[in-house]
Amino acid sequence: MATLANAPTLAQRARNIRRNALRMGEVQGQGYIAQALDIADVLAVAYFHAMRFRAEDPAWEGRDRFLLSNGHYAIALYAVLIEAGIIPEAELETYGFDDSRLPMSGMASYTPGMEMSGGSLGLGLAIAVGMALGLKRKTSTARIFTLFSDGELDEGSKWEAIMSAAHHELDNIIAIVDVNNQQADGPSKQMLGFEPLVDKLEAFGWFVQRVDGNDLDAVVGAFDAAMAHAAPKPRMIVADTLMGKGVPFLEQREKNHFIRIEPHEWQLALSALDAGDQP
Amino acid sequence: MAARPVGPGRGRPAVKSEGSPPTGKDKLTTSAMIASIAAEGQRTRPAPFGHALVELARSREDVVGMTADLGKYTDLHIFAQAFPDRYYQMGMAEQLLFGAASGLAAEGFMPFATTYAVFASRRAYDFIHQTIAEEDRNVKIACALPGLTSGYGPSHQAAEDLALFRAMPNMTVIDPCDAHEIEQIVPAIAAHRGPVYMRLLRGQVPLVLDEYNYRFELGKAALLRDGTDVLIISSGIMTMRALEAAQALSNDRVNAAILHVPTIKPLDTEAILREAARPGRLVVVAENHTVIGGLGEAVAALLMRAGVHPAFRQIGLPDAFLTAGALPTLHDRYGISTAEVTRQIKQWLR
What residue intervals traverse the membrane (chain A) (predicted)? Predict the structure, then answer.
C-alpha cells in the first residue's frame, strides 16, 4: 500500500503500467495491447492499493496471490510486476524473445510473481478455489485476487468454480472480470450472451459490484468494499473497461483484440498517453 | 455368445449373432458400474486404496482427499470417514476438481483427487495438462474403471487413458494389478514429488501378488515367473490374467515368463530390454487398454529403438467403441480373458 507522502499516485502507477506495456508491445510490434491499456487502472489499484506483497520476495508465504486467468493479458501483468519492482525494468526489452522470462502468454514456471500458467482459458477461478481452500486450511489471512475476461464466461469451468466458491463460502477470493466486450471473433456479447451478469453472480451467491474499470476512484471504492465486506461470500468486481484506454487512436480501432501497430505509431501511442495524462 | 442389437455406429466391430435374438433369460447381466473384476471365489480385499490412504494420512498431515461426486465409487469414502475435515467434495465438476487440486497443491498440500478414468482423461485433460502437469504440481490422480472394467459402454470405458497420460510431460503413470499392489503404491507415490496418474481398482479387489513375494517399486518392472517359450509383458489386471494363462499353458508344456510392468511411465527400459533380448522367446504385451498408444506400443518402440527384434504380439482392446454387457462376456469378446489370452498365445506359438 502506498502510504509514503512521496509515493506515486495510483494515476501515475496506471500511466507507468500503460507505458511499460506499450514499450513491450513495441519490442514485438504487436500483441494484446488494447487489453493491457484497458485493465491498467484495475491492476494499479490491485497491486498498489489492495494487495500485500514483497517485491524482493515474490514467493513470500504471507503474500496475497494474484491469479491471471486470461494468460494472454501477460503483457499487462508484466507491466505491473516491473512497476512493482518484482521484475527488473531492463527485462522489458526481452519480451517475447527466446529464453525470456516474459513469454507472450503468462506462465508460472517462467516469471517471478506469476502464480499460474494461463493460455488456455477458464482455468484461473478453479485454481483460486483450491488455493482459497488451502489458505483457509493453513489459517492464512492471505487473499486470492484473480482476473479473468468476459470472454472466459463462455467456459463452463468458470461457472463450476463460481458455484464452488460460493458453496465453500470462500470469502478470501476477490475476482475481477474485465468486461471490455471484445473476443477473438468479435464483440463478447455477440459470441455468447452473459448479461445480466450482476444478477447472475448474485444469484450464484457472490458479493458483486459493477464499476467503471477506468475510473480509479470507483475501482478503489470497489476493492475497499470487497475487502471490507462482512458476509462469508466470495467477492466479484465487474469492471467495465474500454479497449485501448488512454491512447485515443487505439480506443477507436475496430479490430483491437490482437493488434499490430506500425513502427512509427509506438512513439505516437506513448505521446498520446502522456498528452492524456496532462492536467 | 450374447448377441446385441448392432447399430449403425461406425467403427464398431460387428458382433456375431447366432440363432434367434436374446431373450434375456440365462444371460449374464450387464452389472454396469458396480461390476467387480474379481472372479467368483477369488481372494479379495475391500477398498485397498481407501484404507491405504487413511494409513498414509495418519503420518502425513498434508494429505487431502478430493472427488467429483464419486467418493463412494472410488473408495475415497473410507478416507472421508476417517478424516472428514481433510475431505473435499467438489461436486460433479471434473474441471473444477483438478484446477482446485492444483490450487491446494500450490499451497503445500498433497491432494489425492479421484473420479472415473474416463472423466479425468477425456473431460478434464486440459485442466490436468495446464494446471497440474505443466506446473509440476504434487497432485495424485486416482481413477476408477480403467480400461474395460465396466460393462456400461464407451461412456464409462477408459480404453485410452494410458495413451493420453503417457503423452503428458511430467506425468507418472501407473496401472496396478491387485489390492496388494495398490496398498504399496499409495505410500510410494506420496514419497515421489510430482503429478501421478494411477488407475484404480475399487470395491472387492482381487489379491494375487502377495503370493509372489512382490513389492511395488516406482518405475520398476518385476519378473514374476520365468519361462523359455514366451515372455508376457503385462500391466494392471492383465498380469493377473497372464499368471492364470501361464498356468493353463504349462499344462500344454508351454513355458511362459511374466514381466509385470505397473509403471507405464517412466518405463523400466532396462528390465524390458534385458528380458526381451533373451533369444528364442515370443514377446507378448498384454494390457487392459486400446492397442494404440499404451504399454504395447511403448514396448514396441523401445525395442525398435534399441535394435531388439523378437517375434512380437499385442493383446489389448481393439481400436473401436466397445459394447455394453457383462464383464466376463466382454473380456472374452475383446480377447483379454484368461481363456482368450491362453488361446491367442497357443495359436501364435503353433
Answer: 32-50, 71-88, 116-135
